[in-house]
Amino acid sequence: MDIEHLLKEYEHHREALLFGRYINSDHIRGLLEKHSTHIDLSIIGCSVLNEDIHFIKVGSGPKKILMWSQMHGNESTTTKAIFDLLNVLTQSKNDFVRRLLDSCTLGIIPMLNPDGSRLYTRLNANQVDLNRDAQDLTQPESRVLRNCFEDFQPDFCFNLHGQRTIFSAGERNKPAAVSFLAPAQNNGRSVTKTRKIAMDVIVKMNNNLQSQIPGQVGIYDDAFNINCVGDTFQASNVPTILFEAGHYHEDYNREKVRELIFQSLWVGVVEIVFGNPQGLKEKTYFEIPRNEKLFFDIIIRNAKLKTGEGHQVSDIAIQYDEKLEEDRIVFIPKIDKISDLSDFFGHREIDANEQLVFVEDHTELSEGISIDFVWINNKKQSLSV
Q: Where, by residue number, does the polypeptide cross the bilayer (predicted)?
């Protein structure tokens, strides 16, 4: 089954019961039951608040790939993509899928941090970032992942995350819709054989994405931190890839990016199983632009602002705070910066043309305040998603 076929059939494979940014264990429980006749499903541990952590095995082949999602509870896009992939693997009667599953075994933890997922927070219930606990293993979720890694003995790892809307793909007006990384495995960030093999797979995934989102794929910072899980597993000489689900134009629910991650999971698995990466594409990997922090959600340019001393003309950067309200995520506009933002980009840009920008009560606009709209030239401009 080639990627063109998957593109055409994606809506058939897309898991309709998962949508938006808020995904907790309640949302996936029924889906695990749905797939239970086609997968090996087990409970491999519990969270701080005693929620089950599930492990899925699908396929029976010798090449083993371990992947885990929602280590950070508010990074749910990759979880949606995992269940899209499971629909292909468990429901397709395609000969290629059968051959794939005869050649590999996928081990999947769909939600490593169920407590953080329920609260929509990066941290676990003990307020610990699990991605800084790879060495000390102070948290039950960290120990679950390490034990799984040691028991499953993968040949490859996919570390699945989501990133903020602030990232550009290089120093240009292109958001990083998807980012990858072959993590370093030592302080010198040596380009080891293990990293090179991971780089080969990233190059293959990037080639696919460039045909759809040209210039919108980035490489995440490779500073070494042995406390991070990906760096620890890479240092154990298991090729590991970081996936970062980013921002696509007007896609705050991350549904387009979900599809791009789904494709990347498929392309990555197929390349590992049948492409036999040898670590020969290092140069091409380093041609992918590095992530830069050059985006805001909204920039109001050339805004005339009332100050204590009169008026000034400046740019206003607005960033959304994500807040859980009644089982859904709301995006609250907040002024992040008032300055000359000539070197930055907005996912949405408004030119005030040096007209007065104000809110209804004429509160002086300042960094840190939340506002739903502004008035510009007597016209109300909503700042909502």
A: none
Residues 35-40, mean pLDDT to the nearest whole number: 95
Please tell me whether residues 363 and 267 are part of one structural domain. no
**Averaged over 299-310, what is the pLDDT?**
89
Identify any residues that bridge with 159 across adjacent strands, giving them in sequence order: 68, 242
Q: Is the confidence at residue 213, as pLDDT, over 80?
A: yes
What total of structural domains would you count in the chain?
Answer: 2
Structure tokens, 230: 């990906």
Are residues 68 and 126 both part of a single domain?
yes
Residues 278 and 246 in one domain: yes
Residue type, 207: N
Counting other chains too, the contacts that 322-326 makes at CB distance below 8 Å and 24 or more residues apart are 322/21, 322/74, 322/120, 324/22, 324/119, 324/120
247 and 21 Cβ atoms separated by less than 8 Å: no
In terms of domains, do 281 and 310 share one? no
Q: Which residue in 74, 73, 34, 27 sits closest to 56, CA to CA?
A: 34
Give one word for 188, left, alpha or beta, with left for phi > 0 and alpha for psi -120 to 50.
alpha
Tell how far CA 285 is from the center of its chain: 19
Residue with tokens 């769909």: 110
SS3 content of the chain, % helix, strand, coil (to 5): 30, 30, 40
Beta bridge partners of 291: 169
CATH label of the domain that carries residue 375: 2.30.40.10
Element spanning 255, H or E: helix 255-270
Structural domain including 65 reads: 3-293
Kindly write down the DSSP assignment for every residue of 6-36, as one continuous string: HHHHHHHHS-TT--SS---HHHHHHHHHHHT
The closest alpha carbon to 329, from 119, 78, 82, belongs to 119
User: Same domain, yes or no, for 76 and 211?
Assistant: yes
